Amino acid sequence: MTEKKIPVILDGDPGHDDAIAWVVAASDPRFDIRAITTVAGNQTLAKVTYNARRIATLLKLDCEVAAGREVPMCADLIIAPNYHGESGLDGPRLPEPKMPESELSAVELMAKVLRESEEKVVIIATGPQTNVGALLVSHPELKEKIALISTMGGGLRNGNWTTSAEFNILVDPESAYIEYHSGAPLQMCGLDVTEKAQIFPEEWEKIRAIGNPVARTVAEWLDFFFIHLKELGWEGATLHDPCAVLSLIYPEVFDIRDYYVDIDLCGRYTRGATVPDYTGVSGQKPNCKAVMGLDRERFVEILAECCRKFDGWEEF
Ligand code: BDR
Ligand code: CA
Asked: Probe ligand 1: pick from 11, 38, 39, 42, max atoms within 8 Å of CB?
């Protein structure tokens, strides 16, 4: 009997680590990628949507690619060219997109996929939570079709854009608030795990040496992504977004715990913080599975295994 695939929507703002997350998703036959949706974050919506179409072409994905909103729900957009460059995905040359942008908006495409799917669908959201928040508000009836929202965002102990807030949540805290209060099943890969999910330069040299065009592109994305991280003192590149994919299919590699987590919207210094209730003092039941740690060496091995799946692919 063939194993049932997991239907997924990839929602993100590629972005080097989003792109690597999508390589991982495309490499694993357990995933059935039903749609790609984009959200403004690492760069403007037009840039990340163009990048998403180029990545989908590189990976030979034949799903629709739809653009989301140009701005967060309430806040002004913040972008991250310091990490991802002017294009949002600086570094290696990529193929030009073969598919057009969908005529549907991101939320319309997400809703269509959920409505038409016989099974519940996993949304892997690796950018600001703008599309997911808008989906939950505009289509509450589809919440029951969501198997899980697997997010990269937040950090229970620290931030990275401010002391308290991680970039994806800080860009659109209101959408994250809606998500965390929606009752939809939620898994959170915050900085607690993703800053431990580092790959070191000698390790991505081994990925480059795999030699196929996708593995080589992953290594070149890491070359670029590491430039700013190295300036900040990191010894490796932090693979934030791939955690939101790999924690789904390799849960044994991760340390996953149930917590009640709230989103701070109005703190003078702490807006966008993901605030955990460690002690149960809030009296609230857990609203998410928070991924707190991982077996880093196994994680890097799995990434290399994913890259090897593209052996035999022709140069683009
Ligand atoms: C998150 O911010 C973005 O720059 C990355 O793509 C990742 O999703 C890490 O804070
Ligand atoms: Ca991202």
From this structure: 42
Domain extent at residue 195: 6-308
- Per the annotation, the verdict on 240 as an active-site residue is yes
Interval 34-73: pLDDT, tens: 999 999 999 999 999 999 999 999 999 999 999 998 999 9
Listed in order, strand segments (DSSP E) in 45-163 are 64-67, 121-125, 146-152
CATH code at 153? Answer: 3.90.245.10
Domain tally, the chain? 1
The residues whose Cβ lies within 5 A of ligand 2, an ion, are: 15, 18, 126-127, 241
Residues whose CB is less than 8 angstroms from the CB of residue 45 and which lie 6 or more positions away in sequence, other chains included = 38, 39, 67, 68, 69, 70
Asked if residue 110 belongs to a domain, the reply is yes
For residue 1, being part of any structural domain is answered with no
Q: Which residues pair with 259 in a beta bridge?
A: 288
